[in-house]
Amino acid sequence: MTDAPRSREQRRADTLALLTTPAIDVWMSTSSIDEDGTAAPYLVPLSLAWLENRVVIAVEERSRTARNLINSGRARLALGPTRDVVIIDAELERALPVQQAPAEIVEGYAGQADWDPRGDDGYLYLVLRPIRIQAWREADEIKGRTLMRDGRWL
Q1: Predicted structure pTM score
Q2: Cα angle value 137/143/148 (rounded, 5°)
Q3: In total, how many domains does the chain have?
Q4: CA-wise closest residue to 14 among 80, 78, 77, 76
């Protein structure tokens, strides 16, 4: 540990800077229940766009990620390395076929994610509303790591 713990305000600024980074990727975890009743977690890396305080990802409509998220309505996302992590718990707000999405999502996603799914068939934009956001670097930042609770910045 070389730096002093960041204030909540600094962590929020750092988190927003990370979320708006061009071509940023995120690990997204979803889950489902198998036929035998056991939990089936699923983790995948995806491109992310942060648009109007929402996480937007694009996935194939038939993907396990899309199915899990549409069925459960919840996901957990992680950005950054383990010693400077941002964790987001989010709820699915809407799923939009790429060809029917409004221009602000289409252009915003393509601009930040550095990828445009309009050229590929069968893709959806999944718009996620953050419920809780946590950020910390080291053990000295564990206290106060929650930056958003119940969808509201603290």
Answers
A1: 0.93
A2: 85
A3: 1
A4: 80
Average pLDDT over residues 74-82: 96
Q: Is residue 2 part of a domain?
A: no
The count of residues in the chain is: 154
Q: How far apart are CA 49 and CA 121, in angstroms?
A: 20
Supply the range of the domain harboring residue 129: 8-153
- Residue 54, token pair as written in the block: 């929402």
Give the pLDDT band of residue 34 (cuts 50, 70, 90).
confident
Encoded amino acid at 142, one letter: I
Let me know if residue 1 belongs to a domain.
Answer: no
Query: At a CB cut-off of 8 Å and minimum separation 6, what does 54 contact?
Result: 93, 127, 128, 129, 130
* 152's tokens: 């509201």
- CA end-to-end distance (rounded Å), the chain: 26
Asked if residue 77 belongs to a domain, the reply is yes
Examine residue 121 and state whether it is found in any structural domain, yes or no: yes
Q: Tell me the HSE value of 50 on the side-chain side, using a 13 A CA sphere.
A: 17
**CATH number of the CATH domain containing 77:** 2.30.110.10
Cβ atoms 39, 50 nearer than 8 A: no
pLDDT at 1 over 80: no
3-state SS assignment for residue 132: strand
